[in-house]
What we know:
The protein is an alpha/beta fold. The longest helix is centred in the middle third of the chain and has 19 residues, at 365-383. The radius of gyration is 36 Å and the shape is globular.
Amino acid sequence: MHILICNERFLFRFGLDRALIILGKGLKESGHTISIMANKYDRNVLETFATKIIDIPEAQNNYLNSNELTEQWINSRWNSFFNESNKPDIVIIGGWPFFSTIPFFKKMEIPVIFLDCGAVPLEGYTNGVLVTQQKLREMRKKYLKDASSIIAISDFIATTQSKVDTDNQIPVNKILLGADHLDMKIWKMRSSNNKSRIIDSFNAIKNEGKHCILNLGRWEPNCYKNSESVFDIMRKIKEKLPNTVLFVLNDPSTIQIPPDLQNFISPLGFPDDTELAYLMKNVDLGISTSLWEGFNLPLAEMQWLNVPVLVFNKGAHPEVVMHPWYLCKNIDEMAAKAIKILNRDELDPATKKISQDKFHTFFTWERVIKQYQDIFIREMFRERGAASDNLTVFIDVTNAARDTANSGVIRVTRRICREFQKYVTVLFVLWDDDRKQYVFPTQSEFRQLSQFNGPVFNKDCFISPDSGRVLLGSYLEKHPYIRKWLIFSETIQETRASVIRRFARVNNISLGAIFYDAIPVLHSDLCKDIAVKNNHGNYMKGLAECDIVIPISGYSAACLQQYWKSNNINANCPVLPNLLPGEFGGSKRNYAVLNPDLNSIQILCVSTLEPRKNHKTLIEACLLLQKEHPELDWTLTLVGNKYAGAFEIADEVQQISKNNPRIRWLGVVSDTALHRLYEEATFTVYPSIIEGFGMPILESIWHGKPVICSDQGVMSELAHDGGCLTVDILNPRDLSKAIYRLCTDRALLLKLSKDATERPLKSWEEYTVQFLSILGIGPADKRPPGLSESAFTKPSPAWEDILYPSCLCENWQMNHSERMALTALLLRHRPRCSIEIGTYKGGSLSLISQISKHVYSLDIDPSIPENFGHFKNVTFLTGLSTVSLPLLLKALDAEKIPVEFILIDGDHSAEGVKKDLNTVLAYVPKKPLFILMHDSGNPECRRGMLEADWNNSPYVQWVDLDFIPGRIVENGSSSDGEMWGGLALAYLTPTSRDAPCLVNRTANNMYEFMKTSLER
């Protein structure tokens, strides 16, 4: 998966930055491709996990508008960074200055995950900081609703901000951060000689035998950080324990320590990560006096190091603190508990140990990364049009529920069963030959199916009791209207398959099949199992009657289609390959290139002991290596089950391993044991002659281990992307030479290891999402041809919802041409500050408030603020506009907020319209200003507009009094119930004009005509 992470900074000393860096690193290690967009960052750190780093220009002298400028910059340059083939699958946004980009990414059909650390309390902030924080809140409320989902860093943030700012309109998830990142050593010491002034200063005081307390986080007095309260705390502590020093993370020159505390508080400056870890490990206690925290990362970090920390019972602290005892309700309690801790009088050791173990088990970044990936996959799936609840997928697990081994086909079946459970209702069925019917598994069969990372038992699972089988037919009778897919995930007998296909047609079940290979047909000499050999051709023919076939490689797809062509099978069934993943058993991918120990070489081979796997040639090559290079110390470990019809291979391998201690055969092993064998291996050998895929090749690559494999067929195809040494595996001498090269050529081994760790590999989640898309559980453009459209039809939205989303269209006193003109003007001009005079039912206000940052509603009706107070960026002024408008324009000028759009509803007296217009004409525009006048067909409104002093303002460039013509109303009413109507438009700029104002007065005649008509 390609993940784009956007944030203002990626500097490790800031909490959000630190979390995003660790998140990016962890996602990279899980096999994802990471791109970064940022203003400021530490390139050395980002380059350890980011493939692409995009510099976003900083808004010079215009920081407040950073979000808008960032969106414009990205919009204009997006195609230079990404195209349709390499655009991100997911975008993670940390906040400023990327709020405005959320709708852009939504337009690009990329799910946006907003990592919500919350907006801090405003108390104590002034000037530019306050204005920026206020705007941040406005941006949250305006744009977070456009995100795909939010991941809050605590339940406190989720409930108090995420859900509130989005009105519960999008999914909000809670994922508490990890705390084990100090062990990762991502941020190195700044000193090249490993000497640290900060550590030396600390040690000098520590060595005096003093109690040491660390004040966590940044030093920020007079705000929610509440830093100055440590003075009162230290006064109370020093009364009881005068031999105590509090260390604060701030420059000594910028903190004013009271005279009575000069010897008790020591500013250390700003430590790097190594220095900070050292301080945290070696102090006796940490305290945090913050009155609001969305998580409090330093609290988690110190607790990870098993150092006690005291915090106030505020914000997210109850969720993060190791034990409630460490929560304090006030300064007195914090000082008292600090004295207890320094006197070694706190929690009893047993309770403390249980709390520490629980904390260490949960607060890991491995857990965080996994939870994030689950949400990413879910959002991608939701973005692609996930199936509704009335879809059920049945998977044929006839063999996987009974086979105690874990060969390639069985491994695929078990793993897709587990992955499908994340996205759709999936039920597992076995074919019963006696009943000629599918049945649900027993408990013991389900347990066997669940082995080796198979499915987990959940509420959707159906189990047959030991007293008798539950039939699939009975289930279908009770659920006749569900949409159904049946997946053949295993190779099955065609005599059985033909019956199943009839059963599926009768029950309106769509059929999909995974196709592995054509080996028993193309190389029958390598297939010793007569039943398999005789069945396979008919099985391949029968696949043509499925609704879709999904081969595991392009090679297998070509083999199947060629077979159909050779046998004159006219198949209408789509064949869409989905390359199997390289992920092994849910284990974390290895990206470390280790210096191998060539004094003790461990060779691993993983495959079933069947003829085409070519074990005899491998053993012959190894024995030849032993003969010609006796100085080498090597072992060969074979993992794999016996093969029906070729037990003699297993017998021979067993005999050789008895006679030669260098060779051992382990048979079937657990995924845990196999994972360990991969980790211990120097390299692997996969000597198979022919495959449909060759999963052990990619599983070896997943572990960062080079592979020796065939230079033919699909093995060559898999080897192409790196990490493999190809050879003629039928020639034992050539194979022996290849093994010798990797045993002795360290440079080659390291190169192949590096290639292995750097090549992209698909995960089981990605395989499953692609599989479901192929089935049509996704958008139409991802659906294979020939599938029914009816299952994916959604109700079309109302046309008003398309043109005016989230607008109050009912009782909106504009006709459609007027609404569209207003919408076009707002979207083109995008005014940041707008004024509406005359709100009425809120139709136009609901549109303006979506586009403008600051909106002011002027209306004489006192109920307007109560009716439309949910428009968060609207300020309401009640009373006569002739009074409030001049005062408002003067106040906005004082705050240096330029007005860029004014809407005047002309449904009042001519004198009122004239006064409002003249007030606006006396205003000096600071930016281009449009004045839109509604109801220009109303005689009173028309007269007021005509009598306004348009030429008295040098800033009026032109006026069109007939912008959208009003209705000519005779006899005092209109036939369709709309009164007057019409729009007039004026344009003002900060530049004075020299020539007279251009006024389109053609409406003058209309006014006279209307006046005459009314008088008559």
